[in-house]
Design a protein that fits this description.
Number of strands: 22
Distance between the termini: 41 Å
Oligomer: single chain
Largest sheet: 7 strands, antiparallel
Helix content: 25-40%
Length: 440
């Protein structure tokens, strides 16, 4: 009997063979490895990747420090009945915009998957032109939620409420500290940046905080700029399309064709100034997963007397897929790496159609990943997550293999029929610093 992790190895190497025809002579060796029962087990990461109990409210946040920042006002904002689910989703988005101006700028591209009252929606908001204007696709996406799902309170009204609830001092997260250090020289050139992100001649550290912007001010900037009219944006509604993965027991809908080897343009894959950021909220059966992405100019600019960083949205969105059948409904964004599309494609190869619980989904997501890259041809492989037999097999191919600690970052949501639809949980990747907050 081949155990589950070795069966996944078999699927991985079959995908190698299908992509690299010269490896076909290695099939016999592959079978021998898969049947080897003496291979040492893969070390399991103990990070909580989903909420174990049927928690009513869940939050998906950047890291432990961000969770601590949110903790004092979670009850007042996200567990209260004073705000609808749509309003909570909008307010979470505005907080993240103020907290990570380098990754969730008002000018960032915004994608989100919304499940509300038993129906699912996917939207993608980007600027029609990459020019010098200050269009705000991120805010446009939030305005769309107000206009189409809950107009009982305006964006301006929600911003006013946030200004009363959210602390003025925002903690610097470790990743934002890294951004400040890497871009210190450019940030120092602009008063709007230096006055907020510097103490003397040094940038703030993760042990310090900065004064957040007024949310009402941001909404006013959006409303007063004529370039933020609908005609200046590309708004894709429910743009997930069926993908033929050759499996009768699995329906797959994606925003890109995962069957193609390279579905994202080099601009997004190779840019050193590419930034992306995700966050999510779940309340009962409703959930909202958002992903912002942007390309920063080497000469950093700010948006109209604020510390918010102006950027260009990437031409292509980051990939999202929904995998479902009679037993499962799984929504996953692939958010990081040279070619995040491949990670979703490989999940099909690993038989995501047979996943029947959070534990089995966790096993697939934790399994050692690989990427095929060209010019020159090579494989990136998470050797520390794999078994020695896997590594030995790869090395026997005489094919360039580069060992990496971690590949990709996948987040989303899942539910399984045998556990009841109300047991849906947000999902995070153990390769990231992301944290889940599960209501007690």
């Amino acid at each position: 009997m081949i155990n589950k992790s070795l069966a996944l190895l078999l699927a991985l190497l079959i995908s190698v063979i299908s992509s690299c025809s010269f490896l076909s002579q290695k099939v016999e060796s592959l079978v021998e490895i898969s049947e080897n029962k003496t291979s040492e087990p893969v070390k399991q990461n103990k990070k909580n990747l989903y909420c174990v109990d049927n928690n009513k409210v869940q939050l998906l946040l950047e890291d432990e420090s961000t969770l601590k920042y949110y903790s004092p006002f979670i009850g007042q904002l996200f567990e209260t009945k004073n705000y609808s689910f749509i309003q909570k989703s909008i307010m979470l988005s505005l907080i993240e915009m103020s907290r990570r101006p380098d990754e969730a700028s008002p000018s960032a591209r915004l994608q989100y998957f919304l499940h509300l009252k038993g129906k699912s929606y996917y939207f993608d908001f980007s600027s029609l032109k990459q020019d010098e204007s200050f269009r705000m696709p991120f805010i446009k996406g939030l305005e769309y939620l107000v206009k189409n799902f809950d107009n009982s309170k305006s964006l301006n009204s929600l911003a006013e409420s946030l200004d009363q609830i959210v602390p003025q001092a925002i903690n610097v997260s470790p990743e934002f500290e890294s951004f400040l250090l890497q871009n210190k020289n450019e940030l120092q050139k602009k008063d709007s940046f230096s006055q907020v992100f510097f103490k003397g001649d040094e940038v703030l550290t993760k042990h310090e905080s900065f004064k957040r912007i007024s949310y009402k001010k941001v909404i006013s900037l959006f409303n007063n700029d004529k370039s933020n009219q609908d005609a200046n944006f590309n708004i894709s509604k429910n743009s997930l399309t069926d993908i033929d993965v050759g499996q009768n027991n699995l329906t797959v809908k994606c925003n890109t064709d995962i069957n193609k080897e390279n579905s994202l343009r080099e601009e997004l894959l190779n840019s050193s100034l590419k930034k992306s950021h995700y966050f999510a909220i779940k309340d009962g059966e409703n959930f909202f997963i958002a992903l912002s992405s942007e390309l920063l100019d080497k000469s950093l600019r700010n948006i109209k007397d604020t510390y918010l960083i102006s950027s260009k949205g990437p031409i292509d969105p980051l990939p999202i897929c929904q995998f479902f059948n009679n037993d499962e409904d799984i929504v996953l964004f692939s958010t990081s790496g040279r070619n995040p599309v491949q990670h979703l494609k490989h999940l099909v190869t690993y038989d995501i159609a047979l996943v029947s619980s959070y534990q089995s989904l966790k096993e697939i997501l934790n399994f050692s990943r690989h990427l095929f890259l060209s010019s020159p041809d090579r494989i990136l492989y998470e050797s520390k997550r794999g078994r020695k037999s896997q590594l030995d097999f790869f090395l026997s191919m005489n094919f360039p293999i580069y060992h990496v600690d971690a590949l990709g970052d996948i987040v989303g949501s899942a539910t399984f029929n045998n556990q009841g639809r109300a047991d849906r949980s947000l999902i995070i990747d153990d390769r990231s610093t992301a944290k889940l907050w599960c209501s007690p």
